[in-house]
């Protein structure tokens, strides 16, 4: 897929935004959270010159140095894992880090 640049990214001052945090989590809603995480991954794939997935502080610093927006994914509240360590492992494998 050819990369695109959105109007937002064209106008953005590289130092105005250095990161975005995407989080989700409602009781019994693991599938919805996974869909949200998939949207984030697809946005990063669509705008690789502007966005990058970040998994920790080093990734955020690297993104900032490259003039890209670090995108972090997380799960709010333990109830989102639906009492399942398997779901927690799946969220981690999908990129959630907090």
Report on the structure:
- The termini are far apart.
- This protein has a 3-stranded parallel sheet with strand order 1-3-2, sandwiched between helices.
- The protein has helices spanning 7-11, 30-46, 57-66, 85-94; strands at residues 19-24, 51-53, 69-75.
- Helix 3 links the parallel strand 2 and strand 3.
- The chain is elongated.
- The chain is α/β, with parallel strands linked by helices and 98 residues long.
What is the chain-wise order of helices and strands? HEHEHEH
Secondary structure class reads alpha/beta
Helix count equals 4
- Main sheet: strands, sense, barrel: 3 strands, parallel
> What is the total tally of β strands?
3
- Look at the structure and give the mean pLDDT: 81
Helix content: 40-55%
Query: Strand arrangement, largest sheet?
Result: 1-3-2
Could you tell me how far the N terminus lies from the C terminus, measured between alpha carbons in angstroms? 30 Å
Nearest-angstrom radius of gyration?
14 Å
Question: How much beta, percentage-wise?
Answer: 15-25%
| Shape verdict | elongated
Low-confidence stretches: none
Which helices and strands, and how do they pair?
Layout: H1 7-11, E1 19-24, H2 30-46, E2 51-53, H3 57-66, E3 69-75, H4 85-94
Question: Any key phrases for this structure?
Answer:
98 residues; three-stranded parallel sheet; 3 strands; 43% helix; elongated
Could you write a compact summary of the structure shown?
With 98 residues, the protein is α/β, with parallel strands linked by helices. It contains 4 helices and 3 strands, in the order H-E-H-E-H-E-H. The protein is elongated and about 40 Å long.
């Amino acid at each position: 897929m050819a990369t695109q640049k959105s109007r937002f990214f064209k106008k953005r001052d590289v130092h105005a935004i250095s990161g975005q945090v995407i989080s989700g989590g409602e009781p019994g809603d693991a599938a919805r959270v996974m869909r949200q995480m998939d949207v984030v991954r697809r946005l990063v794939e669509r705008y690789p010159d502007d966005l990058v997935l970040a998994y920790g502080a080093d990734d955020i610093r690297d993104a900032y140095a490259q003039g890209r927006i670090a995108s972090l994914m997380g799960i709010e509240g333990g109830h989102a894992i639906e009492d399942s360590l398997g779901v927690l492992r799946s969220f981690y494998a999908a990129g959630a880090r907090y």
